[in-house]
Design goal:
CATH class of the largest domain: Alpha Beta
Helix content: 25-40%
Number of strands: 19
Number of domains: 2
Mean pLDDT: 83
Structural class: alpha/beta
């Protein structure tokens, strides 16, 4: 797609300060008509702050935001798709899309006004994938379907093509086929004259989609270059500030101990008789497309979701009636994929979140919390896991996504669990935070934990795991290890396309 020379958005000298922190430091950028500009950087680099200023959530301390193409007849509009989507989960897709009710006299004589509402909703959604039921509450739909509703809502009703669309981690809940559809829609909008700001921590997507890449680090702009001048290695260097030769190349082989978790025939709503064995010091991955059962497995093992097993033993002891409280007492820890909803109390401080599973360590004989001890424990964990800013009293939701995830990890790892269950452990975090979390997982395994990693990222599973189970339709389709454990093989097995690849090595580590 070819961008015109006409700028739609111009940000000049943007500065935003919080107490003790300059979140944006003299940041400038432009977005032209027909141009897709990717903005990348660590969590805490300033990306979210920039978006919130453009959205009017934050006020800037210095700098200018201009829309040079606006005229009295055609005002440039700015639309933002946030990570939390901003949907009313109790309402259906029709209501979330803002489709008007057909209640006038003329419409009331129509054979089926409700049908017209459904057709309108389905037409909007069909731009991004297969249709689904638009009459059920949005909260009952999959994350991918909710993302599609939010995108369709933002794009509906544009008054003229030269507008700005900001996509903040839009592919986080989408599987590969939905990402492809979304990218085609974004390219079409750009070809029609829209300006696109694409924010993502997935560098492969950035390199595929963007015309130009802006890199932020520690609140400053460190690069603003055409995509054609940046390859993957260079982009990693810009984001991390570390030369490629200095980066960690991968984990070393591990020594495994006795069997810690042994499950035979795990059955649930989306699982169809899964066998799972993990030794002390072993990291076992679980791969599979959305709906394969991958995303439900750790919660079922933990007892958060209802499931039955033919046999279930933990450190050699039977464990039949699983419940989260009992699982914690038996040495299990679970980091869910949705940290905001299930992994934290967003309005509690970092201190309060970090010590929730360790209350016995900070509670006296009268069952009162010793705040001084609690703060000392939180400060110890903040230092160990490099949480930034290092403020135990800061509210959890005010931290960046990567630092939120570090807090969630820290609260569980402090107890040195026997079994560590991880669902999408690095979802919504940047490269720097991802590397820190990988090291925390490696360290937990080195201390003897049996680790289960359920992830949609093939590269992540190859980096972390000793072996990977690939689920398809609720069953184990493949158990990969050694030379067979490659990104290509994981993808092929997940989609049932691995015919003829058994026993082969793609050599793609």
């Amino acid at each position: 797609m070819a961008a015109s020379n006409e700028p739609l958005l111009r940000v000049t000298g943007m500065v935003k300060e919080f107490p003790g922190l300059r979140a944006l430091d003299d940041v400038s950028l432009e977005v032209g008509a027909g141009e897709i500009v990717a903005v990348v950087g660590h969590n805490g680099s300033g990306k979210s702050t920039l978006v919130k200023i453009l959205a009017g959530v934050y006020t800037k301390d210095a700098g200018e935001v201009e829309f040079p193409a606006s005229t009295p007849q055609e005002q440039t509009e700015l639309h933002i798709i946030h990570q939390d989507l901003g949907l009313a989960v109790q309402l259906n897709a029709i209501e979330n899309l803002g489709i008007p009710k057909y209640r006038g006299l003329r419409e009331s004589l129509s054979p089926s006004p409700v049908k017209r509402e459904k057709e309108k909703a389905r037409a909007l959604i069909s731009r991004f994938g297969e249709p689904f039921d638009v009459t059920v509450p949005v909260g009952t739909l999959s994350p991918a379907q909710r993302s599609i509703i939010a995108i369709a809502r933002a794009l509906d009703g544009w008054q003229h093509p030269r507008n700005i669309l900001i996509l903040d981690e839009p592919t986080e809940a989408l599987h590969a086929s939905e990402v492809r559809v979304l990218f085609e829609a974004v390219k079409k909008l750009a070809a029609e004259g829209a300006g696109i700001i694409f924010i993502s921590h997935r560098l492969d997507e950035v390199l595929e989609l963007a015309d130009r890449i802006v890199v932020l680090r520690d609140g400053k702009k460190v690069a603003d270059d055409a995509r054609s001048t940046i390859d993957h290695e260079r982009l990693v260097e810009l984001v991390t500030g570390v030369e490629a030769g200095e980066a960690e190349t991968g984990r070393t082989d591990r020594t495994h101990g006795e069997v810690v978790l042994d499950v035979a025939g795990l059955w649930g709503e989306v699982l169809d008789g899964i066998d799972l064995t993990i030794h002390a010091g072993e990291v076992v991955g679980v791969a599979g497309v959305l709906g394969s059962g991958r995303e439900a497995l750790p919660a079922m093992v933990f007892g958060e979701l209802l499931a039955a097993a033919d046999e279930f033993t933990l450190s050699g002891e039977p464990y039949e009636r699983r419940r989260p409280g009992e699982s914690i007492r038996r040495g299990m820890a679970f980091v869910p994929g949705d940290r905001a909803k299930y992994g934290s109390i967003r309005d509690f401080t970092a201190r309060e979140n970090m010590t929730l599973p360790s209350m016995q360590a900070v509670t006296n004989a009268a069952f009162s919390v010793n705040v001084r001890q609690e703060k000392a424990l939180a400060q110890e964990l903040i230092a160990k896991y490099d949480v930034k800013p290092a403020r135990p009293e800061q509210i959890f939701k005010q931290f960046s996504g990567g630092n939120q995830q570090k807090i969630v990890f820290a609260k569980w790892l402090r107890n040195k669990p026997q079994v560590l269950l991880l669902e999408e452990p690095t979802q919504g975090v940047d490269i720097g935070a991802k590397q820190a979390l990988y090291e925390a997982i490696d360290d937990a395994a080195a201390q003897g934990a049996a680790v289960l990693v359920c992830s949609s990222e093939a590269k992540e599973l190859v980096r972390l795991c000793d072996r990977v189970l690939v689920l398809r339709d609720g069953r184990v389709a493949a158990d990969l290890h050694g030379e067979d454990l490659t990104e290509t093989r994981l993808v092929l097995e997940g989609y049932g396309l691995a015919e003829g690849h058994h026993g082969e090595s793609e050599g793609e580590q």
